[in-house]
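Many introductory courses stop at the sequence. We go one step further.
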Amino acid sequence: MYSVHLIYNGKIFPAQVTQAKAEYVELLVKEPEQFKLGDYISFLDLNRKLEMRIIHMEGSTLSLYPSNSDIFLINTATPTSTLSSMSQDERRKYIRFNVDTSARLHEMSEDFHVHVVDISRQGIGFVSNRQDLAQTMEFDVDLICQGEVIHPRVVIRNRIPMEFESRYGAEIIFIDPNELHALRYFIVMQQLKMMG
């Protein structure tokens, strides 16, 4: 552990770094009630100042990630009319974060499980043995993130048929703001896990 300072809401707070890996920083603070999940914070370390955001809070532990990261673009307002007028290649310009988790999609008459393979600003990519999901179909989702289940609503935007299954792209059309924080934290943890 080593000591750093945080600037938050115009005040300076001491902190102890417990983990620093790639761009992710985890630290202990004395007054966790002073901080709010999702807020911007300046991290002062060895004569450098990094602009971060709080992506997770547990007890006295804060988890920070750079505020300019693409994970903070997930589910930001891009009008659906703009997305639907974009070509497939234009939509692929958004960074995809590889993940490995499962989800259950459901609507009024059916439930089925899928394997989620990536998440981007636009939505989620998943693989299913179902070949019959049409574009514009909407589903409520139970997405497993770090032992937590979040519940976004998605609409199918594309399908790539493969030999025994299909790969689908689904736009997130609704997610609770608190669950969005959990999703971002999950993505960061998945990226760190893949780095080894």
